[in-house]
Amino acid sequence: MSKLNPLNYMPTSLSQSRDTRQTIHLPTERETSSIPRGDTEANWEYPSPQQMYNAMVRKGYDDTPEDAVESMVAVHNFLNEGAWAEIVDWERRFSRGLGHGWQACRRGEEGFLEEADRIASPRDVAAPKLLRFQGRPNEMTPKARILDFMGRMYPAKYGCEPPFDRHDWYVQRRTLDGQTKEVRYVIDYYSAPPEPTGEPVFYLDVRPAVDGPTAAAERMMRWGGDFWYRASGARVRETAS
Asked: Which of 177, 200, 209, 229 could cross-link to 184 by cystine, CB 3.0-4.6 Å?
C-alpha cells in the first residue's frame, strides 16, 4: 500500500506508468497551478492525465473512458483555480482583521468591487498560501445537508442536486503583525444544468469553516453585510444622492 502524503492525503508517489489495461496514450506532463504552496516557494502542480487515470483505476473506477481523461483533468484544474480565487477573495477582506473586514463588507458585494483597490490592496499583507487539502466526497457539510433538506421540502425554490464533491483546504493567512494563522476553508462542488451548447456547468460554494468565533463572524459580516446593504435600499439612496 502506498504511503499517503499528509499534504493532500494522496499516495506519495503518483504513478506515471501506463496501466496494463490502457489502450491509448495519455500525456504525463503536469500543469503548474496559480496556487502557492505553504512549504516551498513553488506553486502546487496538478496531476497529469496519466496520473489521474491511474488514480481512478486504483479507486475502482475501471470503466473510466480513457479518451475523456484529458477533459476531466482540464475541468479539475479549472474548478480548483476557481476555488482558490474565491479563497483569495475572502482573504482580501479578512486577513487584516475583523475591523478591516467590516469596512470591506458593509457596502455588500457590489460596494466591495467598487472599492477593492482602496480597501483590499494586498501590498501590506502577504498573499495566502495553501498548506494542504483533503477531499471528503462522502461527508456532506452542514450547509449542504441543510440545503439538501430544504430542496426536498421545497423543490420549486431550493431544489438542486447535492454537491458531487467536497474539499477542505487549509490556508496560511499572514496577519498585519507578521504572524501566520491556519484557516480551514470548506468547498462544496455542485453541477448545474448544461449550457444550450451542451457544455457542463459547475458552481462552487467556498467559505471559511466555522472552527471558531472569528470564522463565524467573517461569514456573518460578508453575507449579512451584502443582504442588509441590498435589502435596506442603501444602493438606491447612494445613487439618488
From this structure: 209
Q: List CB contacts of 120: < 8 A, sequence separation 6 or more.
A: 92, 93, 104, 112
Contact 175/125 with Cβ under 8 angstroms?
Answer: yes
Q: Are strands 129-135 and 165-174 parallel, antiparallel or unpaired?
A: antiparallel
Burial class (CB in 10 A: 0-12, 13-18, 19+), 77: middle
Question: Virtual CA dihedral for 174, 176, 178, 180, nearest 10 degrees?
Answer: -30
Give the C-alpha separation, 190 to 163, whole Å. 4
Residue positions counted in the chain: 241
Ranges in the chain, pLDDT < 50: 1-2
Strand, coil or helix: 192: strand
- The Cα 74–Cα 156 span in angstroms is 33
Copy the grid coordinates of residue 238: 447612494
Spatial neighbors of 182 by CB under 8 A, at least 6 apart, are 131, 170, 171, 172, 173
Between the alpha carbon of residue 38 and those of residues 11, 19, 35, 185, 225, the distances in Å are 19, 32, 10, 15, 31
Please give the distance of CA 41 from its chain centroid, rounded to a whole number. 21
